[in-house]
Amino acid sequence: MHVAPLTGLLALGHVHRDPGHSTPGLANCLALQHSLHLENTTILDVSYHPSPSTVACQGTCQTTANTSAPFCRVQFKTTTSSMSGFTAEAWLPDEWYGRFMSVGNGGLNGCIQYDRLDQGTTLHFATVSSNDGHDGDTAVTFLNNPQVQSDFSHRAVHIQSALGKQIVNQYYGRPHHHSYYVGCSSGGRQGTQAALLHPNDYDGIVAGACALDFNHLLIKAARMARAIGAPNPASSPSYIPLTSWQYVTKEILAQCDALDGIVDGIVSDPDACNFNTERLLCTPVDVATKTPCFTRDQITALNVVYTPTYAPDGTQWYPRFNPTAERAPLVAFSLSGAFPAYASDWMRYMVLNSSATYDASTFGLNEAILMDKVWGDNLATFSGDSHAFNARGGKFIAFHGTADPVVMPGIAKRMYNLVSSTMSMAPSALDSFYRLFMIPSMEHCNGGYKAADEFGQYAVATNKNTTKTHIILAIVDWVEGGNAPDVIVGTMADGVTTRDHCKYPATSMWDAKQAKFVCV
Ligand SMILES: *[C@@H]1O[C@H](CO)[C@@H](O)[C@H](O)[C@H]1NC(C)=O
Ligand SMILES: *[C@@H]1O[C@H](CO)[C@@H](O)[C@H](O)[C@H]1NC(C)=O
Ligand SMILES: *[C@@H]1O[C@H](CO)[C@@H](O)[C@H](O)[C@H]1NC(C)=O
Ligand SMILES: *[C@@H]1O[C@H](CO)[C@@H](O)[C@H](O)[C@H]1NC(C)=O
Predict the structure, then answer these.
(1) Helix 156-172 vs helix 26-35: angle between axes, to the nearest 10 degrees?
(2) Where on the tree of life does the source sit, at the highest rank (predicted)?
(3) Do the beta carbons of residue 432 and residue 503 sit within 8 Å?
């Protein structure tokens, strides 16, 4: 990845190296093996990578990773209690601009995020990632181990950052001047936890597709799967084959495509779409002419998917699955009718506290009620008090694709509104430290039909190096330059077409006169 153009912008606030201090490079890097003394920590290996290469990975998630910028690699292992710990890596670029970055995880993992380490060092951040207290995408180590649960909830990221900052200080001979966090999905949840529970860790946080209110998200996912027929979907009368969801999308577009002012195959704000599933019900003519249509049982399943899930007392457990989020390619993740592995893991190791295989046919309201009660050291992540983070001057950018089939997009708005009501701050006031951008038609963290889904959030190469088009540059400019982003400009897969992503509560509407989407 060629990144020279980013230099100008990121150099903002760059502190020039004091010649009296140590310089990065081979000798000083390798010396860390013996000179680093960090609490509860063993240095596993230190290596120096002067040019782009491929390195072997720690853990079970991936075997090799590509690297781009010259850097020093520190691999370490830290105990967090007598029954828990994590492995982590700090990647320290030769050309360091004084910034620290911590990155999060995803799903139930368990995986050092090598692509994010590479992105961070490429952008001249000293970057740290850990396995979040366990290896792999599973909850098996959560069983009867509240310490491992704490690491997954918030502690591993907190400690990896504290240690990473010490490594930075020692290697470069001076402390970082600003610290950042970047993550998506569970990584977005972890970024939210950092703001709520460890408000002093970061000056700026970018949190995407946050898997907030986590246990209720699992209830929603499990309920959808059961509605479609889990654990034996193919023999269930409500089963909807993967190939049939395209007809649902077609009907959604027939009902709602025009709502954003243009018929273009996407629904920019699915919350405005009151999708009426009845129109998909088979008529005798449909049946006679073999027109794709849905049985009453299938319509019932669709209604579970496209409406929120409620607790018995009528409070909302989780927002609905958004119309158009059933679009390929991630549809199989949520709507195949298979009971989600992460929900059965959660039932076994967190809720029932048993390693016995989970029988998903038993999942009903009683199991949802049990799930509702198990939090594991704040793991749910759904509270609105960000006073401390705001008071220390922290800045928070959240984003969420409106066609995310993994984490229902409505949760991003619920969180925004929860913070707003908890802190008694209207959006105009929240703007001073917390901004949410809904990304039309984007799937989970990136991707999505006709979505302008590239804005620097992922470890993808991007030549769009402005604060408007690159969300990491946007947070740096907000924190260090005082320039808050009003829109995030995304670029489509063609590398050319752009779209303004709007700051919630504004929504994206087609303006025929200007022939572009505008925020209203
Ligand atoms: C962005 O990149 C262009 C070259 O592609 C360069 O001319 C410009 O200075 C860069 N801008 C910033 C702010 O880094
Ligand atoms: C490393 O880069 C090569 C060449 O671009 C690519 O084929 C491979 O998938 C990359 N590996 C990883 C783990 O990203
Ligand atoms: C080191 O571990 C002990 C117990 O395992 C813990 O009490 C202490 O807080 C840890 N120190 C740090 C810096 O995390
Ligand atoms: C399993 O353990 C959690 C505490 O981690 C507890 O809240 C829950 O009630 C336990 N479940 C059962 C079935 O005992």
Answers:
(1) 130
(2) Eukaryota
(3) no
